[in-house]
Design brief:
Layout (H helix, E strand, L loop, with lengths): L10 H15 L2 E6 L4 E8 L4 E10 L5 E6 L5 E8 L1 E7 L4 E8 L8 E9 L17 H6 L1
Antiparallel strand pairs: 1-8, 2-7, 3-6, 3-8, 4-5, 4-7
């Protein structure tokens, strides 16, 4: 990121660059789904990994969307029609590409805004070296 009128990246530029890079690694996405359309997403998963798909409608029409999830073998693991929000958790039965789709094909004139989060595996603890048997300080207690 270059600052306007400058050939170098200033301290705020580096901060913005780091924030953009961090956002690119996140699995949370908000996107526009046009009327009479569908959008596919793909994720590589490893056998035995716990995965969770959560989604919610942000705007558009009756706040509903069709959603389905297919495992690496093509089997439909989850399918719901005209849902406002939902969450589905599964454990991968094999290695491969998992794909999921959001469809607005039933709508003829209303586009939608959809938020989803596809979590693969467990998140690391916030404080890995924290010994939970000790008392938390006031600041840590407020953050947990």
């Amino acid at each position: 990121m270059l600052l306007r009128g400058s050939r170098t990246v200033g301290p705020w530029g580096w901060l913005m660059l780091l924030l953009v890079a961090f956002a690119a690694w996140a699995s949370k996405i908000t996107f526009e789904l046009p009327d009479n359309a569908k959008q596919w997403f793909y994720e590589e998963i490893v056998h035995g990994t716990k995965c969770t798909l959560e989604f919610q409608m942000i705007s558009g029409g009756h706040y509903d969307v069709d959603c389905w999830l297919e495992g690496p073998d093509g089997a439909v693991l989850y399918k719901e029609m005209k849902k406002q929000y939902d969450s589905f958790t599964f454990t991968a039965s094999r290695n491969g590409t998992c794909k999921f789709c959001f469809s607005n094909e039933f709508s003829t004139f209303t586009h939608k805004t959809v938020y989803f989060d596809f979590q693969v595996g467990q998140d690391p603890p916030l404080f890995p070296s924290e010994n939970r048997t000790t008392a938390l300080t006031q600041v840590k207690y407020c953050c947990v």
